[in-house]
Specification:
single chain, mainly alpha, 2 helices
């Protein structure tokens, strides 16, 4: 996965993530914080995946 694809996935799903967070918290402020935390964790996971794939490719 390339970084631009990770960026696009985050953009596409951020509203859904917020909706999920709002359904769990019932509070807009808490939902914004939770959604932000979720998006950050997912983005970090994407970046780790991208890095690991590039390292694997370089080691071949």
């Amino acid at each position: 996965m390339e970084k631009h694809r990770a960026d696009r996935l985050i953009t596409v799903y951020r509203d859904r993530v917020f909706g999920f967070a709002l359904s769990k918290t019932g509070n807009i402020s808490q939902a914004e914080e939770l959604a932000s935390d979720i998006v950050c964790e997912v983005y970090k996971a994407f970046l780790i995946l991208i890095f690991n794939r590039s390292v694997d490719k370089d080691s071949r």
